[in-house]
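Make up an example, fold above all:
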Amino acid sequence: MRPKILISTGGGNAGNYLDAVKAAGGMGEARYLPAPDLSYDGLLLAGGEDVDPALFGQENQGSRGIDRARDQAELALLDAFCGAGKPVLAICRGHQVVNVWLGGGLIQDLGPQLVPFHQQERGDQVHPIQAERGTLLHRLYGPVFPVNSSHHQGLGRLGRGLRAAAWAEDGVVEAVEHDALPLICVQFHPERLTGGLARMDTVDGGALFRVFLELCRVK
């Protein structure tokens, strides 16, 4: 069975996500502001611009590119898919949306000391992260491994049921896991580390997509 995956995007080119899902054995459909549709086997929340800080009780302190309609659509998607126990793969912005959905907060700007470690003007920044023993990332990649990043925000207070699963050297949370829900949430971009975009200087991002699709097959 080829799982059917709903990919929620900001309306731009979703080719990397579609290719990564296909390469891992699934069928993806990318949509902007999709309504919850539980005929899909799983949900992928793609990267993009910043979440409206009003949703986690803050004034704007460096957030940019806010799309409140997308925020609301993706919160509703999480209500539906997680309520049905269906797997969710949340990448970069998606990782942050999940934290906000569960009542957590965000660091709206990592500041000039940390942003260069996670974002550069062109292309991805490559840096090592450390995974907690026993987590999915630790099982896939080991205790320390290189990933790609392109973000200026990070997780603040963790949401209900979430625990940190990996960190950058500066302490920024790079992945979280949930106590009960089938959530795979990473700050980096595995869709740009697989297939024709695989890199010699990072891990294989396709491994995460394969695990996600296997979860979708059994749910």
Notes: The first strand starts at residue 4 and ends at 9. The mean pLDDT is 94. The two ends are 12 Å apart (CA to CA).
